[in-house]
TrEMBL record:
Residues 156-586 form the GS catalytic domain. InterPro entries: Gln-synt_C, Gln_synt_N, Gln_synth/guanido_kin_cat_dom, Gln_synth_cat_dom, Gln_synth_gly_rich_site, GS_Type-3, GSIII_N. Belongs to the glutamine synthetase family. This is Glutamine synthetase catalytic region. It comes from Ruminiclostridium cellulolyticum (strain ATCC 35319 / DSM 5812 / JCM 6584 / H10) (Clostridium cellulolyticum).
């Protein structure tokens, strides 16, 4: 099987498989459930389950699993075989509708942020029929949502599905008012570009920091970094190319439209972009992409690093969440369109995003934050920590004209826009794009560039979907009541530009001037993950999530706790790993080097020839001084870590201490070690250096 058309989707129980294998009535009922979110009755589920099982078994599957996305950020699965025992002790292969729709999962070891008390460890998984089932490793994977027994969400899919629903509902209300009679559904679409590093497994195995934390905790810059710009879009090395080909095939089998693969800015860094799809499927697919990147790499003797900042001094990795909204009648709501009517509708939806992103900038910021991304955001390689929207000069000018326009005809959409009857065709230029903006309009979609490379894209999407849904609800309320529709549209646009226009910024987001300007505009500048987490408890944020039925107050509190714990655990592991490597590998190596110099001095002195040994003594002094600093830094980090572990009741304060004290200590320890790395003989230095790791494939 070599033709892409034969491989593509061959392991997916997709629409064409369903159409071919299900009785017509069952297919129709299932389609209705998928398209309209109606409940599926058990009889139909039984037929679907049995067809799925037969299909899976024909493809060699023996097991099935309810595949879910707990708040660890990765996926989880529990495998059951299709085998059941008959009364006379024989084995039959069975899979019922009940088993398809709902699974039990003992979730006591997944983070719940206090939502489940230990004695109530049960959770359940519910089939998400809007994302197709697939086969991987002889197992049928059924995408599911994961809830506690009392119904609280314990995963990243449930809020995403809820946000898709509320966004659709409110977008449709607005669209109906624009006369779109056939629109019954609006679906957010997403294409997530994924960056990653590939390194040789032999190097990886020698670095405990990579093994335990995913990033290098030590390492001085290699003589060469990314300054020559010779890696970006460079020719792909044979070993990497064969990995990419293999990866594409595996992804295609799962129905993932892996499209673009290229080298990225940093040495050993690459990117993969799939073609966009619905945000729910895109989120599942991104999880699969991350998983397959890792497993396929191993087959090639490589390790894929998804950490946001695996190496200091060269760029880290992110994920660009391209987002738009499309309707069941084929409109992309962020395509400006060609007619004035389409233009106005576009401008209103554009304003919904502007208002949503401005008012919920803190939630959007949080969705791009994690411990790894703290190393990137705001450091001239990734968007600043300040949320702003790039619209481009043309579009910004049009909005400004609408605000300043005075004599606007009230009853005619065509004349809504001042000076322009229709929007000029907006340039879709990929070359002079503003790459420093965290949230850029790119012609017919938005590109949210803040997500971390290791993160699930779910929260970036559910916060954005919910915020936009809420704003559209406010617009719909106003428009439904309005006596004069056009006038009201106009006044909404004006209000948004006046009240939320501060979020629009087309300049250089990496500049210091922007930081000052943003402060003047009153835009939040949330510098770190821990500080961003605090926004989960803000009343306005709880209110919007509750109103749109995406999270309850309790669920927001639980996410707050889980996020803080995630930070604490991450830094704790990093600090412990740093101490382990320092004490057992690096300090002994440095002392060995020191001793060798001392020995050389003695030997030269004793050999009876009078020579200048100042080089040896200078080097000894320099080494000894750094070694003693090294030892001191180890003690300081140990003390800080012990304080962090034992002296806090409040999780937020504890997390802040990890950030401000433990993390700061780690940085100073690293500086000393990196200096030592530059003088200790390479034959003695016990771990591979950046030069060894980054330029090895
Ligand atoms: P660009 O060159 O402007 O970055 P691409 O066409 O390469 O744009 O797209 C980048 C990503 O955006 C791809 O994953 C692509 O599938 C996705 N994308 C394109 N259109 C949409 C859309 N309407 N909704 C969501 N994602 C989209
Ligand atoms: Mg991009």
């Amino acid at each position: 099987m070599n033709l892409i058309s034969q491989i593509f989707g061959s392991n997916v129980y997709n629409d064409s498989v369903m159409r071919e294998r299900l009785p017509k009535a069952t297919y129709k009922a299932l389609k209705k459930t998928i398209d309209e979110g109606l409940p599926l009755d058990f009889e139909i589920a039984d037929v679907v389950a049995s067809s799925m099982k037969d299909w899976a078994i024909e493809k060699g599957a023996t097991h099935y699993t309810h595949w879910f996305q707990p708040m660890t950020g990765i996926t989880a699965e529990k495998h059951d075989s299709f085998i059941n025992a008959t009364a006379d002790g024989k084995a039959i292969l069975e899979f019922s509708g009940r088993e398809l729709i709902k699974g039990e999962a003992d979730g006591s070891s997944f983070p719940s942020g206090g939502l489940r008390v230990t004695f109530e460890a049960r959770g359940y998984t519910a089939w998400d029929c809007t994302s197709p089932a697939f086969i991987k490793n002889n197992t049928l994977y059924i995408p599911t949502a994961f809830c506690s027994y009392t119904g609280e969400t314990l995963d990243k899919k449930t809020p995403l599905l809820r946000s898709i629903e509320c966004l659709s509902k409110n977008a449709v209300r607005v669209l109906k008012l624009f006369g779109n009679e056939n629109v019954t559904k609006a679906t957010p679409t997403v294409g997530a570009e994924q960056e990653y590093f590939l390194i040789d497994k032999k190097m990886y195995d020698k670095r405990k920091d990579l093994i335990f934390t995913g990033r290098t905790l030590f390492g001085s810059k290699a003589p060469k970094g990314q300054e020559m710009d010779d890696h970006y879009y460079g020719s792909i090395k044979a070993r990497v190319s064969s990995f990419m080909k293999d990866l594409d095939r595996e992804l295609w089998k799962l129905g993932i439209f892996a499209k673009t693969e290229h080298n990225e800015v940093a040495p050993a860094q690459h990117e993969l972009a799939p073609i966009f799809t619905t945000s729910n499927i895109a989120t599942d697919h991104n999880q699969l992409i991350m998983e397959l990147l890792k497993t396929v790499a191993l087959k090639h003797g490589l390790v894929c690093l998804l950490h946001e900042k695996p190496f200091a001094g060269v760029n880290g990795s992110g994920k660009h969440n391209n987002w738009s909204l499309s309707t069941n009648d084929g409109q992309n709501l962020f395509d400006p369109g060609k007619t004035p009517h389409e233009n106005v509708q576009f401008l209103l939806f554009l304003c919904a995003v502007i208002k949503a992103v401005d008012e919920y900038a803190d939630l959007i910021r949080l969705s791009g934050a994690n411990p790894g991304n703290d190393h990137r955001l705001g450091t001239s390689e990734a968007p600043p920590s300040i949320i702003s929207i790039f619209l481009g000069d043309e579009l910004t000018k049009i909005l400004e004209q609408i605000v300043s326009g005075e004599n606007i005809e009230t009853n005619c959409l065509e004349k809504l826009m001042v000076g322009v009857k229709t929007l000029p065709e907006l340039r879709k230029d990929t070359t002079d794009r503003n790459r420093t903006s965290p949230f850029a309009f790119t012609g017919n979609k938005f590109e949210f560039r803040m997500v971390g490379s290791s993160a699930s894209i779910a929260s970036a999407n559910f916060f954005l979907n919910t915020a936009v849904a809420d704003v559209l609800e406010q617009f719909a309320d106003r428009l439904e009541k309005a006596k004069d529709f056009s006038k009201e549209v106009n006044s909404i646009i004006k209000d948004v530009v006046k009240e939320n226009g501060r979020i629009i910024f087309n300049g250089n987001g990496y500049s210091d001037e922007w930081v000052k300007e943003a402060e003047r505009r009153g835009l939040p500048n949330i510098k770190s993950y821990v500080e961003a987490i605090a926004c989960l408890l803000k009343e306005k944020n709880i209110a919007v999530m509750e109103k749109q039925k995406v999270f309850s107050r309790v669920e927001m509190h639980s996410r707050y706790e889980i996020s803080l714990e995630k930070y604490i655990k991450t830094i704790n592991i990093e600090a412990m790993t740093m101490l382990e490597i320092s004490k057992r590998q690096l300090l002994p190596a440095c002392i060995k080097f020191e001793t060798e110099i001392a020995r050389s001095i003695n030997e030269i002195k004793n050999c009876g020839v009078e020579v200048d040994i100042s080089a040896n003594t200078d080097l000894l002094k320099e080494t000894a001084s750094l070694v003693s600093q090294f030892k001191k830094e180890i003690s300081l980090l140990e003390n800080s870590l012990s304080k962090a572990q034992h002296s806090f009741e409040d999780t937020f304060e504890q997390a802040m201490f990890y950030r401000q004290d433990v993390f700061a200590r780690m940085e100073t320890l690293r500086t000393v070690v990196d200096e030592l790395e530059c003088i200790v003989a390479s034959s003695i230095w016990p771990i591979p250096t950046y030069a060894d790791i980054l330029f090895n494939i």
